[in-house]
Amino acid sequence: MENLVATGAGMPTRRRFFEQLAALGGMSLAVAGLEALGFGFGSARAAPPALGGGAKGKKVVVLGAGLAGMTAAYELDKAGYAVQVVEARAFAGGRCQTARNGFKHTDLAGYSQTCEFDEGHYINHGPWRIPYHHLSTLHYTKLFGVPLESFVNDNDAAYVYFEKGAGPLKGKPVRKGEIAADARGYTAELLAKCASKGNLDAPLSAEDRALFIDYVVHEGRLNPKDLSYKGTDGRGFAVHPGAGLDPGPGKPSVPYAFRDVLDSRAWYVLSSVTEYEQQRTMLQPVGGMDQIAKGFERHVGRLIRYSTKVEKISQGPDGVSVAVRDGAGQPSVITADYCICTIPLSVLRGVEMDASVGFRDAMADVSYAPVNKIGLQMKRRFWEEDHAIYGGHVYTDISGINSISLPSYGWQGQKGVVLGYYAFGSDAARISALPPKERAAFALAAGQKIFPQYQESFENAFSFCWHLADHNLGGWAEWSPEGRASAYPVLVGGEGRIYLAGEHMSYLGGWQAGAIESAWQQVERLHARVQQQA
Ligand SMILES: Cc1cc2nc3c(=O)[nH]c(=O)nc-3n(C[C@H](O)[C@H](O)[C@H](O)COP(=O)(O)OP(=O)(O)OC[C@H]3O[C@@H](n4cnc5c(N)ncnc54)[C@H](O)[C@@H]3O)c2cc1C
Question: Which of 233, 426, 463, 526 counts the most CB atoms within 10 A of its CB?
Answer without folding.
Answer: 463
